[in-house]
Write a structure and sequence with these properties.
The complex is a heterodimer of chains A (75) and B (159). Chain A is of the alpha+beta class. Chain A has one domain: Glutaredoxin (3-Layer(aba) Sandwich), CATH 3.40.30. Chain A contains 3 helices and 3 strands, in the order αβαββα. Chain A has a two-stranded antiparallel sheet. The chains are: A alpha+beta (75), B alpha/beta (159). At the A-B interface, strand 1, helix 2, strand 2 and helix 3 of A face helix 4, helix 6 and strand 8 of B.
């Protein structure tokens, strides 16, 4: 999954921020945001529009095509 | 008294002694002594809870309400000091959080306080494969920080 996310992060640079939040216990901000969203399983992908409104949440692996479709739909 | 009567008497005596011996076996020998404090797997958590361990979810109340392991009580880490003050330090306590990080801190705290049987679910509820109680709590849109740009958050672990 990591190569896909890294690739799309490059591809959508300037259009969509892709933030990787590692829940390994060392990143308190990632833990805090995971708490806000209620992340229970990893990976969990959360899609937020430019107003900060949550537009989607996907738990589990995603295909690159599905992820691109979600990113393209964000405004 | 014939030979048959004697044999029956001996058999009854043996059965009686065996029953008495079983009744006198310490409970720990029947159920197995509790393991020492440690990280535990999903299956070990189930075993401990079936033996009466207190199951404590140290995540926030929002996380807890959104879903939890069946039978868990919610004691967020910032309320653990107060809550644990009234707990029996000899009774087993199993802790978990989202990924095992916050509960590891709680694990260390309880051990330092003298709890003799404390356990930490290694990978948290993120890796839980058993009964799961889904909650009704929803997350308000906009709870994540707005960056002014569309954003995708990828919550993952390195493993």
């Amino acid at each position: 999954m990591r190569p896909v996310v890294d690739r799309l992060k490059q591809a959508y640079a300037g259009k969509v921020d892709v933030k990787v939040m590692m829940l390994d216990g060392n990143d308190t901000e990632a833990e805090r945001l995971a708490g806000i969203v209620g992340v229970q399983y990893v990976p969990t992908f959360v899609f937020v529009d430019s107003n900060g409104a949550q537009q989607g949440l996907v738990v589990g692996e995603m295909s690159e095509a599905d992820m691109r479709a979600r990113l393209d739909a964000l405004r | 008294m014939n030979r048959r009567t004697i044999l029956i008497g001996v058999a009854v005596a043996v059965i009686g002694i065996a029953a008495l011996a079983l009744a006198m076996v310490p409970r720990s020998a029947v159920t197995g002594a509790l393991p020492p404090s440690a990280d535990v797997s999903n299956q070990q958590l189930r075993d401990l809870v079936s033996r009466g361990a207190r199951l404590v979810d140290v995540r926030t109340s929002v996380e807890f309400e959104s879903g939890r392991i069946e039978g868990a009580e919610n004691v967020p880490v910032d309320g653990l000091t107060t809550a644990a003050a009234s707990w029996d330090k000899a009774a087993p306590v199993v802790l978990y959080c989202a990924t095992g990080a916050r509960s590891l801190n709680a694990f260390g705290y309880l051990k330092a306080q003298g709890f003799s049987h404390v356990y930490n679910l290694t990978s948290g509820i993120a890796a839980w494969d058993g009964e799961f109680v889904s909650g009704q709590a929803s997350v308000a849109a906009g709870s994540l920080p707005a960056t002014g740009k569309p954003t995708m958050y990828d919550f993952s672990t390195s493993s």
